Amino acid sequence: MITVRWWSDAVATRTQGAPMVAALVALLAVAATAVPAQQASAVDAAPVAAAGTVLGASPELPPPPEDEDVPPPEPSTPEQDTASEQLIERYAPVVRVREQLEPCRDGEPYLPVSVDVVMDNDGVALRGPWTSNDLVEIAPGADRIETGLLEYHLDFPGDALDPGCGYEQWSRQISEGTAPTVYGRVVTDPARPGHVAVQYWFFYVYNDFNNLHEGDWEMIQLIIDAPDAVEALDVEPTSVGYSQHASAERALWGDDKLEIVDGTHPVVYPAEGSHANFFGDALYLGASSAAGVGCDDTNGPHTELGDLRTEAVPTDTDDYLAGYPWLGFDGRWGERQEAFYNGPTGPNMKYQWTAPIRWSETSWRDSSATVPLGSSLGPSATGAFCGVVEAGSNLLLQLIRNPAAVLLLLAGAVLAIVVIATRTTWTPSDPYPVAQRRSWGRILGASRRMYGRHPLLFTGIGLVYVPVMLLAAGLQWVLVEAGELTSLVDTDGDQNAATVFVVVLLGGAISLLAYFCVVAAVAQALHDLDAGRPVTVLSAYGEVRRHLRPLALVAARLVVVCWALLIFVFTAPLALIYAVRNGFAVQAVMMEDRSTGDAIRRSRDVVRGHWWRTTAVAALVVGLGAITGPLVGVVLLLVSDGSFDVINLITALVYVVAIPFVAIVLGYLYLDLRVRAGSPEPGEARPDVPAGAWP
């Protein structure tokens, strides 16, 4: 049920006293400025900010261009007020939030609430603009903040940068017994006559996104081509815009992406935590200040707010201030913090409050980008973007909270890298002979020079990754669109758990297949180059084909055992130990023509006594190889306007170049270990290993 509340009595309260009020406030401001700053109290100073707000221009309401002569808005009539009420009720949105089964768990914990729940609330403080702790009043009421108070803050209980579950519990407590609320308002734009905007404003007590902050205002807006509210009743909307961070997304009325209930009620999907409004359920990617930097999640299952209450806010300033005095507050609806962690300003401070059509012309875009379910050409930039941005946000948050500790930690990390780099030898780095003992610095140098001498050979070996991953993408599409997963996608969207598990499992398996093929081909190329034999991409993969059976068995054994050990947290370290001890079986198969079991034993033999060194070098190069492509893509997402498909393709090509280098390093590392182990032949006794060298 949609309940509409209309302040009809507000019309009767219109007076001619507004200029007198402004004059009195200005007089108080002049008097206050005569008081020495050190003697003025917080309460005494409040009218100063109020006067500046009433008499000056609001900083978030940019003036129209100089060449645009904007007439003042015409006063609303009782007939238009009644029509506005009908429009607000007719187009009231249907809101579907992510379902939360348990408090303080996954899902959307915050619902749009009535502003009344934070007014006259003992947990809320009004603070001044002078320092971070200038307390003006406890439990301020709507009448107290309607005078403007520019740069004042409403401070809610809790730490905005370390929310825990406190804000969620407080939101539930203060809203208990009340219905979720949205504020509707009909307004025209004097600079764009002939259009009517129907707006719906949502207030949340907390924004749990990358830019954590108390208070959150979001909105949607419908545009109707009509001169006023009365005539707007006879026509349909032409478009609708959903606010998303610093901009909005547009849909034409009747677009496929716009879901409409009962012919007039648009469906809104607020993203979990950020409350940015979207037209559907998906994982959305934002890579700009306008679209937000991060990933907005609206995936199901959902809870529909069936008891959503819509309150109709009058159009004219005097009328809405009479019914909703808090709309005169020019301060911030949340705790004072640095930069984008600061509390937001309210609806009356937004450009669209008085210039809704101009706002739609300058801030609306036609679409939002979604994060693809699968990847077509290796690890994608879009797939890595969410995690990278979240990690960066957490680091920035810690830097703001504990700058000394974070800077000290970063300095320590840099110092550790410098110390490690200076404790190895980097020269000579001649790549030949391939099989010789080298420090890890010389291994990296020799690998770089080997790649530089034969770039076409190794890049050609890496290009096999492209058709293999295209095959993966094709199989994923068949499963999702034409196979047994279609019903799951149709029911819960393409991000439901079952679909994600199957698609990721398939993509991961085929990615590992491509990885093992490249590592094996590079090992063969190094072996042939060291022996002075001619080698080509085809000859290297010809040898891979000849050794396909032992390679497949080695790969299957490594993957199955490691995945089994990774199921439980306490066995995860064993997966790392197993992978390093047995991971060089691929090189043993290709370089020494060994069988499956013999190759695995060979890998264990050469690693024994050098596990820590081997793990460090392998982790360094494999880790850098795995993240290079996605990181390049993330940078491109942030600094360019290229399409996601193109950026993902660039990411894949970077990966194609990087993986052969990783394989070269692993090949050199294996041969180094073999020399250190005395290079025993099959059946030959291995030199003694010092005690304590396990694993």
Automatic annotation (TrEMBL):
It comes from the Bacteria. Residues 55-85 are annotated as: Disordered. Residues 1-42 form the signal peptide. The chain crosses the membrane at residues 404-422, 456-479, 499-523, 554-580, 616-639, 646-671. Keywords: Membrane, Signal, Transmembrane, Transmembrane helix. The keyword Membrane applies. PANTHER family: DUF946 FAMILY PROTEIN, VACUOLAR PROTEIN SORTING-ASSOCIATED PROTEIN 62. This is DUF946 domain-containing protein. It comes from Jiangella ureilytica.
